Structures are given as structure tokens and as C-alpha cells.
């Protein structure tokens, strides 16, 4: 009987079948280690390639360590590179093996070939083994003095690696001083750039524990160093130029002439082909002129052309990065870019992420002169095959209408969208028409005439359906079939899965009942019954509330549910001005692309639900996690709503007395109130405070915004601002001093400072006043964040008294 056939499997020639092949490699390497026969280097290359390939796919070849080191005795640079790669990989996980490499690496650090010297020094510093630190100091010292720039460049980065392995060894060897000398005297710009990068990292880490390191870090942004680097900037590589320009943004010139000198020197960097260099230069221009309002506006005009050129050239990814920065600038100064709106038109072959950003920018730059052209272009996108972009374009049209530009024509366009036979177009248009009616009630007659022809059965998206129901309730007196449409929706209550729609339906039926009671009474009863029985807590609570208030008093219910309404003047912004300013301070970084400050995507508490997967346990991601409520809690809430006041007091007897007092007092039940906590002592300011402009600018850039708020000015204050000096004298009488001011009517900008009495704690204020709106935008920065609120109250009080006799 023949033996069973064994399964045959073809093996890759680059993958060993087991330990035997690694053993074969070890034997072959040992045979070649001392050989000087012709062609031995070629044989070594083949074996080295096999070893590296095995190592790359995760096979342990650490047993070949000794043989690899013995075979490294060669002048072939390719073999040297592969050997260094192998050594660096296994030295990290096996420090004992790393000791075997020290001799041959140190020997190679003195090789005649500068390339081998540099590679050996890089590999020696990359071992990152604390026990071998003593062997790094000598080769690094020699490398920093090497005649070849490549070796010096590697040695500089090696110093930084040494610092991260053993900071004390690096500082004791006085390497930072050597790097500083090289930075200011070396002829090779890449060496200079590496020195700058290393010194910034070392001194920033040391500054917290060493005053000398803190002084050295400040010296990096002194005038001699900055001017030396700027005068050589054309010699630097693109990466090094960005490094130097980032350093320049931290420099605070002592006088305005310096600002203009620096900008003139960097003028040609705006024409650079590399987008990173251009953006870094733009950041320098913007940061230097922050305190010079008029010049700052001129900078926007100057940087506009280079940025628009970068958008139209290069890859989509580069276009998006530049567009994101342009988007930030457009939001800050839309009028500067209003004449260039055609640059933001979407191209057919652009990715959707670029198109979406351009749509936002078209919305921002719209004004009286270009609205017609922009809206016409946006309406073309509504028929785009890319449905998300079509939706965004319709929303953009609505946003422009809410900005009060050419409202008549835009309303007509939106009503035409409602007549298009595309579900997503109708859905987006309904939501926008609802917002427009909230701001422009005078258009209700024209809009309702079109909306009345839309069947609720053809609207499936929750937000659009909710908007339609809102209009049916709000304008039920003008829509003949409104009660009957609402009644049919109530009949299909159980088929409606969106809680948002059910909530709107409850309110709409209530409103319709107050306007047309006979036709709506039965629908209202059915809606309240369905709402009270609803499983969703919000719907249940609202239905119960409506039922109780109707039983109490119908006229009171009408005043609560359907009061006289005023037109909405301003819709809430999605981002606060403080967030936008922080993003601007982090110009030329990922913050601009993410449209959020760095602390929101770097600190753990600001990360998304995915980052908390381990901590949340059984909670799911996103909105589903918010809806996880125990059945016991829902049941308790239902019982609580149905209890009388006396019953509630009995069931809550076990609660803390303080909380009970607070709730009962809020409900006006005559219970004793909790004693008031004494207010903190009022902040007292130094009447003779002094602060030089350079220190103010430096602190303004370094300190985070503590508070940001909008204040209203009295008519008397606005009238008194015809002479801005009056405000400066008034604030000074309250120990708040002005250090810079500018602008012309109706926009004025002031920078104030104050100091805490008998302390060196400073408060810095930027105050932008618009006399046409009577509003003041105030940002406060403080050395002592805990007292910023008290100072803000004091500043607001002083400003409110301006103009009063």
C-alpha cells in the first residue's frame, strides 16, 4: 500500500521554511566574514538582503547579530547601510547585543569616507540605550568639529538624541553651547537649521528647571539672531526656511521700522513655489502687524494674490490646505476678497472636500455687488450629480439670504427649488424657507402659497418634515388644509420614527388649535394621547405639559405656546469669536484644517467618543450613547411628573436639605433659602501701572484668551467717541491704561492694560468698537487667570460709565 501523499506547498524564495534556513544564513555569513576573495562583497549583499527582508516581515534573525557585525568590515557603503539598519533594529529590543556594535561603529566614525562617518554616527546615536551613553560623547564631539558638513549635520541631530536618552550627560558635555556656536558661525545652512531645531527643543525642555536655559531660549528670538537668520534665508532649504520663519513669528520688534524691514526682506518669499514657505511667510506678515490695524489690512491685500495662485496650482491636497487658510482669512476680512469671488467657483474635476470649502467661502464673500452672480452660480450646483454638494449649494443660497443680500431674488430661487422634482432639493429648500420666514415674516404669503402645494407624503427627511410641520402650525390661518394635513400626520403617529418630527407635530397641532379650534380639536386630543403614551422621554414630557397647561387655563396655554413673535435678527454662530482667534493664532498648522484649536484635538478630554471606548464600557459611539437611559430611570421620571407637589416632597425626603431648599424656593413654595455665599473682595488696580509696548506684544502672543464678550455702548458713549482720546482719559481714571489705538469711524481698535494693586500681575485687553452698531468686542488676557472674571466686570463697569455726565 502506497504511503499517503503529503500536501505540497510552494514556498516563497524570500521566506524561510524554519530555523534551518536562518542557521544556513548564519553559516554562510561566518564563511564570508574573513574572506577577501574577489566578488565576496556581492555575495555579502545577497545574504544581507535576505536578512533584511526576513527582518522586515517579522522573522527573528537576532541570532545572526555577531556574524552581521563581523561582515561589516568592508568599504562597501551599501553593505554598511544594511548592517546599520539591522543593528539599529535589534539594539532597541536587545541592549545586550548593542554592546557588540560599539567597537565597529566607533571605528567607522573615524573612516576616511565622510558618508560612512556620518552613517556610523547616526547609527551609534540611534541605538538609544542608556547604558551606552558614555560611548556617544566622544564621537559626537568629533562629529561637531568634522570638516564635512554632512557629518556635522548628523552630529547636531545626534546631540538631540543624546539629550532625550540622558539630558544631564548632554548638558554636562556643554553640547548646547557648541550647537549655538555652530548655528551662528557654520557655513552650511542645513547644519545651522539643525542647530536651531535642536536648540529650540533642548532649551524649551530645560527652561522649566533652569533660568539659564530660559534666557538662552529668549536669546534665540533676539534681534541679532533673527536678522542673521533672515539675511541667510535664501540659502536655506524649504524645510529650514519654514523653521526660521516660524521663529520670526515669535519675535517682537522694538519699533515699527523693524516690522517694515522684515516684511521687505521677506517680500520675495511670497512668490516661492513651495506652499509651506508661502504660508509661513504669510503668518509672519500677519503676526507682525497685529497691533497696526491699517497696515494689517494692507497685508491682507498683499498676501491675497500669492495664496490664490497656490490654490489654482498643485495637487488637490495642497489646494485644500491653502484654501483652508484662505477660508480663515476670508472669515476675518470678507470685504478684502469680495472682488475675487470667481476664484472660489467650483471646478467639475475637484474633489468634494475642496468644493465644500469653496461653497463656504462663496457664502462669506457675498455682498451687495456680487450676490446675483454668486447665487446664480450656486443654483447651477443644485443640479449637481454629487448630491452632498448640491445640498451644500442650496444651504449656501439660504445663508446668503439670511445676510440680507438681494432677498427678493433669492426667495424666488428657493421657491423654484421647491417645485423641482428632486427629494433632496425639496428637503433642503423647506428647511431654508423655514429659516427665511423666521427672519422675514413679510414673505409668508408668497412662501406659503408654494409650500401648501407640497404633499407631506413626499417629504421623508426628518429635518425637512419638521420644517414643513412648523410652517403648517405657524401659518395655519393662511393654509386652508393645514388642520387636515396635521390630522393625517397624527393618525400616522406610530409610523413616524423621528422624535424631532413628533415634537414639532405636537407644537404645530397646539398652534393650529388656537387659530382654528373646531377643525383641530379632535386632532389635538389624538396627538396628546399619542404623545403621553410615547416611549421617547422628551415627546412624553411635552405632551404631558401641554395637557396640564390646557387643563389649567387655555388662554395661558396660548400665551406660552403661541405668543406674538418678533423676527429673528441674528442666527447663532457655530463658533465663538474666542475659538476663531485661537485658530488664527495657530495659523499654518493643522488647527486651520480641522477648524478647531489644537487643544481640542490633542488633549484627551476633548477627543471624540472613539477615544473613550475603553472608559465608556458598554456605551456605544456617538448619538446612540446619549440615548442609553436605564428603564428604571425613565419609569421614575414618569412617576415624578404625575405626582402632586405634596407627594413629591414625601418621596424626596431622603434628598439633601440644601438641594430641596433651592428647588422649593425656585418654585415659590415659601421655603427658607440657602444662605448667600459672601462675594469675593473687589479687585483693586494699580493707578500707576506701567508696561512697555514690546512686553505687551510678547505677552499678548503668549497668553491665552481668558474671556471674550460683546458689550453694548450707550448712545452717549457712541457720541463721545467722535474724539477717541476721551475714552482713553476716561479708562485711565479707572486705572486702565491705553497702550495703542487706531482705526477710523465707525471702527475703532484699542489695546488697554492694567496691573493688580501691589502685584506684578497684568491684564491685557483688546477692545474693538463699532459706533454704527453700538457694540464693543472685548478680549481679556491675564497673567492670573483666576482673577480675569473680576477684572472683566471692572472693565465692563468702567466702559458703561463712558459718556455719562
From TrEMBL:
Its family remark reads:
Belongs to the adaptor complexes large subunit family.
Quote the PANTHER family the UniProt record gives: ADAPTOR COMPLEX SUBUNIT BETA FAMILY MEMBER (PTHR11134)
Residue spans crossing the bilayer: none
Q: Where is this region: Disordered?
A: 1-23
Q: Which organism is it from?
A: Hibiscus sabdariffa (roselle)
Beta-adaptin appendage C-terminal subdomain domain boundaries: 683-800
Q: Which Pfam families match?
A: Adaptin_N (PF01602), B2-adapt-app_C (PF09066)
State what this protein does. Answer: Subunit of clathrin-associated adaptor protein complex that plays a role in protein sorting in the late-Golgi/trans-Golgi network (TGN) and/or endosomes. The AP complexes mediate both the recruitment of clathrin to membranes and the recognition of sorting signals within the cytosolic tails of transmembrane cargo molecules.
Going by the UniProt record, its keywords in alphabetical order are: Membrane, Protein transport, Transport
How this chain assembles, per its entry, is: Adaptor protein complexes are heterotetramers composed of two large adaptins (beta-type subunit and alpha-type or delta-type or epsilon-type or gamma-type subunit), a medium adaptin (mu-type subunit) and a small adaptin (sigma-type subunit).
Q: Where is the composition biased (Low complexity)?
A: 1-17
InterPro entries this protein is in? Answer: AP_beta, AP_complex_bsu_1_2_4, ARM-like, ARM-type_fold, B-adaptin_app_sub_C, Clathrin/coatomer_adapt-like_N, Coatomer/calthrin_app_sub_C, TBP_dom_sf
- Which domain of life does the UniProt lineage start with? Eukaryota
Name listed for the protein in its UniProt record: Beta-adaptin-like protein
Q: From the Swiss-Prot or TrEMBL record, state where the protein is found.
A: Endomembrane system
